[in-house]
């Protein structure tokens, strides 16, 4: 796994045309954040901010995962989404 593959996956995810479920978006987001920033280091948003809370929880679930593992999983998930892209 190299940085170039990760960056290509980051660009590819923006090109997806088909519908991507909220769950898949959160999964991709969590691995992106873990790969680029490491463990979640911000306080949990209030429960009233549903979208921010969901994103925070998704990222926080990756806690302890290495940045390299997160990159690897992110690339694999984006490849899977590209294969299923029906747009």
Overview of this protein structure:
The protein is built from 4 helices and no strands. By secondary structure, the protein is mainly alpha-helical. It has a single domain, classed as Acyl-CoA Binding Protein (Up-down Bundle). The radius of gyration is 13 Å and the shape is flat. The N and C termini lie far apart (28 Å).
In short:
It is found in: Cytoplasm. By secondary structure, the chain is mostly helical.
Topology:
Elements: H1 3-14, H2 22-37, H3 50-60, H4 67-83
Task: For this entry, give a set of tags.
mainly alpha; 4 helices; single chain; 87 residues; lipid-binding; Acyl-CoA Binding Protein; Diazepam-binding inhibitor-like 5; 0% strand; fatty-acyl-CoA binding
Strand composition percent: under 5%
Helical proportion, percent range: 55-70%
How confident is the prediction overall: mean pLDDT? 94
Radius of gyration using CA atoms only: 13 Å
* SSE-based structural type: mainly alpha
Q: What distance lies between the first and last C-alpha atoms, to the nearest angstrom?
A: 28 Å
Count of structural domains: 1
CATH topology (fold) name = Acyl-CoA Binding Protein
Low-pLDDT regions: none
């Amino acid at each position: 796994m190299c940085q170039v593959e990760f960056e290509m996956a980051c660009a590819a995810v923006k090109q997806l045309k088909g519908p991507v479920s909220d769950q898949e978006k959160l999964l991709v987001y969590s691995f992106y954040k873990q790969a680029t920033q490491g463990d979640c280091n911000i306080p949990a948003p209030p429960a009233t901010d549903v979208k921010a809370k969901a994103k925070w929880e998704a990222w926080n679930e990756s806690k302890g995962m290495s940045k390299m593992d997160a990159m690897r999983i992110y690339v694999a998930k984006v490849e899977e989404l590209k294969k299923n892209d029906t747009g």
